[in-house]
Amino acid sequence: MSWTPLTGFLVVLGVLAAASAFGFVRSARDGRVRRRAAAAPAEVLSADDVGDLGRTATLMQFSTEWCQPCRAARRLLGEMAAHDDGVRHVEIDADSRLDLVRRFGITRTPTVLVLDHAGTVISRVVGVPRAADLLDEVAALAPASRPTVHVHSSPSATRRPS
Questions:
Q1: Fewer CB near the terminus (10 Å): N or C of the chain?
Q2: Mean pLDDT of 15-35
Q3: Residue 111 backbone dihedrals phi, psi, to 5 degrees
Q4: Which residues contact 129 (CB under 8 A, 6 or more apart)?
Q5: What are phi and psi of 96, to 5 degrees?
Q6: With a threshold of 0.85, does the pTM exceed it?
Q7: CA 77 distance to own-chain centroid
Q8: What CA–CA distance (Å, rounded) separates 51 from 70?
Q9: How far apart are CA 132 and CA 42, in angstroms?
Q10: Distance CA 83, CA 154 (A)
């Protein structure tokens, strides 16, 4: 098989198209809440795993020291916990808690697990979470007690209870 300039160009074009498609798919999924499938076995964490659980929800963030997006996630989750005393934010260092990383299949940081009051994993977010989506997840766990929460990370983040 002989290589011509046109063949090389087509190979480069194909690689660029595949990389672009991967990037678009990844950015579309980044920060989205994925709920645990009803048929999937419930994964429950105890106070031994995360410390005290929130009365309504616990936002368990896996991060690493060198992770830049983890800082934005930490700020967002910290604000949510500060504005709602039923919500607790727990940050787990993925490098030092490899047992939990393996148990939950954490492949990227930040990854946030949303736990209910009993420690059951309700959903997961890979990447920096979208504030409105997390507010909806927490509201679903305790719809009657939802205050208005103002989160400063994006203009669409302020939500009123529905």
A1: N
A2: 67
A3: -125, 130
A4: 31, 33, 73, 76, 77, 112
A5: -100, -10
A6: no
A7: 10
A8: 20
A9: 25
A10: 16
Of residues 36 and 107, more confidently modeled: 107
Tokens standing for residue 161 = 């209870």
Alpha helices in 30-162 (DSSP H): 47-50, 68-83, 98-104, 131-141
Burial class from Cβ neighbours inside 10 Å (0-12, 13-18, 19+) for residue 50 reads buried
Six-digit token string for 50: 């995360």
**Are 148 and 161 a contacting pair, CB within 8 Å?**
yes
CA distance 127 to 117: 23
Closest alpha carbon to 132 in 115, 151, 109, 117: 151
Strand, coil or helix: 89: strand
Decide if pLDDT at 33 tops 60: yes
Looking up tokens 């983040």, which residue turns up? Answer: 157
